[in-house]
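Ticket opened by: R.M.
Priority: normal
Category: complex prediction / small molecule

The reporter submitted a protein together with aspartic acid and asked that the result be attached to this ticket for the collaborator who will pick it up next week. Submitted input follows.
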Amino acid sequence: MLKVAKFGGSSLAGPEQFRQVKKIIEADPARMCVVVSAAGKRYKKDSKVTDLLYLTHAHISYGVSHEDIFSLIEQRYYEIRDVLGLKYDLESEFKRLRSELTSDIPVDYLVSRGEYLTARLMSEYLGYAFIDAAECIVFSYDGQIDYEKTYAVIAEKAARTPRFVMPGFYGAMPNGVIRVMTRGGSDITGAIVANALDADLYENWTDVSGILMADPKVVSNPNAIEYITYQELREMSYMGASVLHEESILPVKEKNIPLNIRNTLRPEDKGTMILENIPEGVASNRMITGIAGRKSYSVITIYQKHISNDTRIIRKTLEMLENYRVDVEHITLGVDSFNVVIPTSQVRDRIYDIISDIKSHVHPESIKMDDSIALIACVGRGMASVPGSSARLFGALGENNINIRMIAQGSEEISIIVGVDNRDFERTIRTLYEGFMSEETENK
Ligand code: ASP
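Result attached by the on-call engineer:
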C-alpha cells in the first residue's frame, strides 16, 4: 500500500502545523511520499511565503528595498527550524539566496524557494529523504510539463528512496532553469507523484474537511461532499469551486487513483473521496452533487438568417476570438443567431476591436453584446439519464422569479449550466442549494 500525501500551505504554516503533519504521517506507514507547498498563513491576516517571495521580486524590480519583506521570510523558516530543534543549515541557504537577490534573479527561481525550504525542513523532521522537484518535474521549452519523462524520473528516484519529501509547485526545463506552475500547483505535483508511483491513494491535506456542496460565502454552512467523480469535480472546479487545482485531476484519473481531500486539523474527518466511479450504496443518492459558479461573463450574439446552415460564420467568429486569445466558455446556436459566452475580464479593454474585427471579417446581419452574466453549474451524476432533472431545476428558479438568460447541458448530462444576471448570482445558488440538496432522487 502506497499513499502520496500532499500538504497545502496552511498545513505547513509554522512549527505547530509541522507537528500535526508528522502525527498524520506517522499514523499510517503507507504515507511514504510527501509533497509540500510553501509555508502558508498561520492566522487570517498573516501572509503566505509564496506571496512574500513574489513581493520580494517586485521590490527588486522596482528598485525598492526588499529587506523588510525578505527578513520576514527568513524568520518564518528559522522559527520552524528552531522550535522543532532541527539542524538544517538555513544560514547558508539564505546567505546564498541573498547574494542572488539582484535584478537578474528569475522570479520563478526565487518563488520556488518557498516550497524548496519547506520541503528541506520537513524531510529532516520526518526523517524522509529529500527529492528536489527540479530534478524530476520536467518542463519542455514550450513551458508544458513533459509527463512521460517526469513519471520515469520519479519512479527511478523513488525506487532508491521510497520514503521522501518533495517540494511542490515547480520543476525545471532541460537546461536546469526553474519553472513554476500556476498558483496552487503543488496539487499537480502530488498528482504526478501518485501517477508515477501507481499509488493506491492520493491524499490532499488542506484546511477544510472536503469539498463543500456550495460556496460557504453564498450558502451558510453547506454540507461537504462525501463522494464525487473526477468528471463532476472537473466541472465544479472549472466553474469556480476552488479546493483543488483543476489540472491535478488528470494524472490521477488516468490511473484511476482515488483522491481524498482531508483536513489536517481534523484528521478524523473522512473528507471528500474523488473516484472514477462511485461504488453502489456508499454515497447519498442526491440528484445534485454540488453547485459552483462565476460572475462576469459577456455574451456576443451574432444574427444571420439560417445561421445553423452557415458554419463559416461560426468558424470565422471563433477564429477572431482565438486571435485575441479569448477563452470561449459556451456556444449556443439558434436558427438565426449564435451566442458565444466569454469572460468579461478578457475582453474589457478591447471589446471594440474584437467586435469591429468580427464585423469586417464575418459580415453578419447584426451583432449584439451583453454584459453582466453569471454562469452557475449544477453538477451531479444523479442527473444523468434521469427524466425531469432539468424541469426541477428550472422550476425552482421560476418559482423564485429568477430569469434564466442561457442554458447549456453537457452531453454526459452531469451538469446543467444556467446563465443569469450577475445580480441574481447569489440568489440562484441559494435557491438551487435549498431546493435540491435535501431532495433525494426519486427514480433511484
Ligand atoms: N505555494 C504556491 C501557491 O501559493 C503553490 C501551492 O501552494 O500549491 O500558490
